[in-house]
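Journal club prep — side note

Before the paper discussion, L.F. wants everyone to see what a predicted structure for a comparable chain looks like in token form. Sequence:
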Amino acid sequence: MATAKKAARKPTIWAILDRERNVQLYVGREPPHLDGAFPSAPRGTRYLGQLNAVEAHKSIGFDCERLTSPSRWRSPLSRNVRGGRDVTRCIAVLLAIAASPTFAAKPHYELKGRVVAIADGDTLTVLDDSKTQHKIRLAGIDAPEKGQPFGTKARENLAAKVFKQDVRIDVIDVDRYKREVGRIFLGERFINLEMVSDGFAWRYPQYDKPGEFTAAENDAREHNRGLWADPHAEPPWEWRRQKRAASKSGR
């Protein structure tokens, strides 16, 4: 019994099947929990990544579905695969899937922590209970850049809302800069939406295809709130494009 307890305290790779049938993997001494539709990790348990089980089986021939089942949604891999070789193979599959955008499913998990830094109007840093920092990009919106008009005010507006506050983040993607992209909530307040409604962020059409922030942007524009006080306000993505073009032409 003492041996079993000692073994249980060792860091373990855990698999959990979320409600969208994606296999989320974690490492730590304690298993993740399924709170609502998506898993969350206890202190000391770190998120590794996600496997799209169907594509993993199709492309590599490894049946990751056997790691979990709807009736027993959490379990250490060592108890669900046959020996260390299969554990190693599963990790290899995870790395292969993560490196291939063709087969990787977008991550979807929840983070909780305190906001410890504000980079600009749509990017901040959260420190979780395990003292791990997460750089978060607010999903679906785009705030003025630091060099743009209202860039500083957008940063100040976001800081006034969440700096040193405990927030919940519904992570929906990881961008090319390795930032976790998410929907940020302070209690019941949806901060992404508030930034657009206050007029300190644009709806980002490329990433808000359903038009979730359209009404808030139209209302802010109609009432000349924030950046909309400037009749010639330039979308940040256009500003960045022009900066890139100017940089290339100056070489």
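L.F.'s comment for the group: The chain has a mean pLDDT of 77. Keep this in mind when we get to the figures.
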